[in-house]
Specification:
alpha/beta, 10 helices, 14 strands, globular
């Protein structure tokens, strides 16, 4: 069984107690679920959840529970409203901005601090491209790219995540001051990665891909991509928790673009609220991705800002807590306007 929150509402005060609930302690309220079970789908009001059994009760409890903030030294990352993670690549070949900051730690750090000044809560630093067909980077080279930038940003007071699938790079990034590990392979690519994260006690982002050991870009035939990705992430969370990582320190990412067709990606974006049933904060990474070009006459990477903003706002509407983006200032402006609309609605005015 799966539950997808639906029937989102703007004015919860207009409903009797118990008829609407807050989504994951955030800014969205909803009044019903789409229940997906045994190949069937139906809409049920919240009052019927108690009749649907233990699995439904577990999912409902996860969906409405506020997400505990991550306290990381002097910094606290809260999840009661969406925040932005700014993408900072120090690679020669990333699909969007590869080469801009290669072999220039000071320049990369300055770019990261500009993102922080524009409103990014986290700076996500990557030293290896994960686009389809990208060249594998030797772990020591990747660590040498990443660690000096992490160190500068952390010293300047920024909250940094290290975007890597390699244990040695995780170690180097954490030692340099990173607070979070963001792994596109969900700690499956490197056999030592799980141990590193568990021992460090660092929060971790687990992203779905169909073949993490092979790079994450295989193309399976999904019967129901939304529930299959959910089930994969649920099993992965259980495995990571069993290895010693606190569930409250796990974030999930449905992996838009990784081993998914355009149709799959659109289904995942429309189904995003279902992933609150995992009980973890959600990261959404859609900035400048190919699906935007596919929907807009093959618009090149540099001309995908409008689509990126549209998808970021759609993520906020679905209760996503972390939006991983290239264009921090523009996304922050969109979120501030969205937040203004939500505040006005929740204040009881039309």
């Amino acid at each position: 069984m799966h539950l997808r929150p639906t029937h989102f509402i703007d004015a919860p005060f207009a409903y009797p107690d118990g008829e609407v609930v807050r989504l994951a302690g955030g800014l969205q309220w909803f009044a019903a679920y789409e229940v997906i079970a045994a190949g069937n789908r139906r809409i049920v009001p919240l009052s019927d959840i108690a009749r649907l059994g233990e699995r439904a009760a577990t999912l409902h409890a996860r969906i409405i529970a506020p997400r505990a903030p991550w306290v990381l030294g002097a910094r606290t990352l809260r999840f009661d409203q969406p925040h932005v993670a700014g993408i900072l690549n120090v690679t020669p070949d990333s699909f969007s901005d590869g080469g801009a900051h290669v072999d220039d730690p000071a320049g990369a750090a300055a770019a990261g601090m500009a993102m922080a000044a524009a409103g990014a809560a986290v700076i996500d630093i990557g030293g290896e491209s994960t686009r389809p067909g990208a060249t594998l980077v030797w772990e020591e080279d990747e660590a040498r790219r990443v660690a000096p930038v992490v160190e500068r940003l952390a010293r300047a007071g920024a909250l940094v995540s290290v975007d890597t699938r390699k244990a040695a790079v995780m170690e180097a990034g954490l030692a340099a001051g990173a607070g979070i590990v963001n792994d596109v392979s969900a700690l499956l690519w490197d056999d030592r990665a799980m141990e590193i994260v568990a021992r460090a006690g660092a929060p971790v982002v687990l992203m779905h891909s169909p073949d993490p050991k092979a790079g994450g870009h295989g193309r399976p035939a999904y019967r129901d991509v939304v529930t299959e990705v959910f089930d994969w992430l649920e099993a992965r969370i259980d495995a990571v928790v069993a290895a010693g990582v606190d569930r409250a320190r796990i974030m999930v990412d449905p992996g838009i673009g990784f081993g998914k067709s355009l149709s799959d990606n659109l289904a995942l974006l429309n189904g995003l609220p279902i992933f609150h049933g995992l009980g973890c904060p959600i990261m959404l990474g859609v900035s400048r991705k190919r699906m935007i070009g596919a929907l807009d006459n093959e618009a090149p990477v540099a001309e995908r800002l409008g689509g990126s903003i549209a998808l970021a706002v759609a993520g906020a509407q679905a209760g996503v807590q972390s939006l991983r983006v290239h264009d921090v200032a523009a996304t922050m402006q969109a979120l501030r306007v969205w937040r203004g609309l939500r505040d006005r609605a929740l204040a009881g005015t039309s």
